[in-house]
Amino acid sequence: MDTQTLTYIFVGSSFALYIGIAIWSRAGSTSEFYVAGGHVHPIANGMATAADWMSAASFISMAGIIAFSGYDASVYLMGWTGGYVLLALLLAPYLRKFGQFTVPDFIGERYYSKAARVVAVVCLIIISFTYIAGQMRGVGVVFSRFLELPIEWGVIIGMGIVFFYAVLGGMKGITYTQVAQYCVLIFAYLVPAIFISMLITGNPVPQLGLGSDVVGSDLSVLARLDGALVDLGFAAFTEGSKSKLDMFAITLALMVGTAGLPHVIVRFFTVPKVSDARRSAGYALVFIALLYTTAPAVGAFARLNFIHSVDEQSYAEAPNWVKTWEGIGLIAWMDKNGDGVIQYGAGAPFEGRADYDGAAGAHGERLLANAPTDAANEIVVDRDIMVLANPEIAGLPPWVIALVAAGGVAAALSTAAGLLLVISASISHDLLKKTFRPQISERTELLAARGSAAAAVVVAGYLGINPPGFVAQVVALAFGLAACSLFPAILMGIFFKAMNREGAIAGMVAGIIFTLSYIVYFKSPWFGAVNDADHWLFGISPEGIGAVGMMVNFAVAAGVARFTAKTPPSVRHMVDAIRIPTDAKASK
Amino acid sequence: MDRKPEKPEPADTAKLYWRENIKLVCGLLAVWFAASFGAGILFVDVLNKVQIGGVPLGFWFAQQGSILIFVVLIFVYVGRMRAIEKRFGVSDE
Questions:
Q1: ipTM of the predicted structure?
Q2: Cβ contact (<8 Å) for B74 and A569?
Q3: Domain residue ranges of chain B, discontinuous segments joined by +
Q4: Which of A68, A152, B34, B83 has the fewest CB atoms within 10 Å, measured from its CB?
């Protein structure tokens, strides 16, 4: 069977599985819709959290980022895992004890304020939609590459599936589909990694791949890669280019942002007990670490393979994947010296983004309208394709390629579903039930939850098909916002009884204004700001500014709380109750 | 901080329990910080002079070691909290 048929079979049967689970586990009450009734086993919740958390970015993009930026990519590896330590130690157990449905619920109750709740809802919605657009896009890219459908159709099919199980099943349906999706995605990630590790090092454990010797030589993979890169004029793989302060800020912003992401936090509302919430965070990180400790090896292998199969290779005889990815515009080759051979090296081969002029060149390549640069490099490759192209680059059998496609879709859909659910819960529960229409019945609230999930799917699909101009840039925004608003508000809510309504709201607003304006100033095309280290505040990039935004939040909140009314006794008692695992409410 | 403790004993237990909890969390966060920000970023150049199994040590901490330490930290926390909660009689298990 050819790759495409196999891909249809793999992706199709994974979809059938998700739909089957959704029908089996549909939600009947608001508690089941929002938090799966609070009955999820900690290990199942760990897997669901891992799938919820590992998005198209983790599955598709991260190894590619590592492949092309080496040590600098460590910020993602540490940032996206270290956040779980903060979550487990500082947030999850207490929020579980609080025992409500959403993150704005906690902020609204703890700060005895509808305004605080609404600020939290606004943050949550911006964060979640920013994030979800990327997921839908990821589904579209996988479909367009492997099934040769237009990206729009991929997005629409993805929307249909998520619509079905998120709207029908709510958190209960999502949880068990996410467990299945975790199994699909981790299998799809590890199988090619193990194959490639065997091919390159002869060692089947990809986690050990970085230090293993390349087959037939006495150099380790890293040493070999460093050598090859330096020869081609790149910096060594193990050397970084970012300043220490910037590395520090980005890692911190990603860690804190991870701990503050509503769709991750809410997963810990679904386990039965406080102690389960802690344990569940541990399991989640184990399941995540399985992929995250593999990614550095996958990245290094991919870069090594890429150099070997592309550099000094005649285009006419280049492997097939070069042409297929070129066909959808993710690889571009400009034969600058007219020798028909691909030269790879440091520096951009031409000015700006690839602009294919529609004609074919002497060797069948897609010609470009861009102005060439002085660099000897002739090829540019979108780093997002590394994981998807890896099996082809390594010459693995077609079923592995089909498996990777199914894994990429699973990663994107599981995250999208989790995000849709927090969006719909924040609208039906926080805005309607708790703020504007408290008189509605549970039935109506459930209907509103399903309705807003449906509306959110449509908006997400629209964003996936028509991504805002700088969509790739806005992930920084999601983490930055979570880091500067939700995380500090929750943390102070648990650990500082003296933090009052005025302080928390002022802190969140100040953190958001600071972080948002910094990111928009440097990332948007509107101000013409130069986005480089010389122009950044203290040399901290927009990716890392959330860490500073968090400090701003803490400082403003502490200042305002000092000079305003004390927290009421009822709230102090509530905080006391949250801090201790036992009482009637916690152990059901 | 807490006004009018009606039953002084549970309030005391709660306070002591909370203090133990904070101590544990601070200790674990110190390790969290040292493994990632310390070994992976601040002291990466020094540690890179050492190679273990073909990988520079600082680079290894930044890309793999810190993650493994994070996993261990959470399970240590789970275990220690269980013991603390049993001791203060506030365990939910």
A1: 0.88
A2: no
A3: 33-88
A4: B83
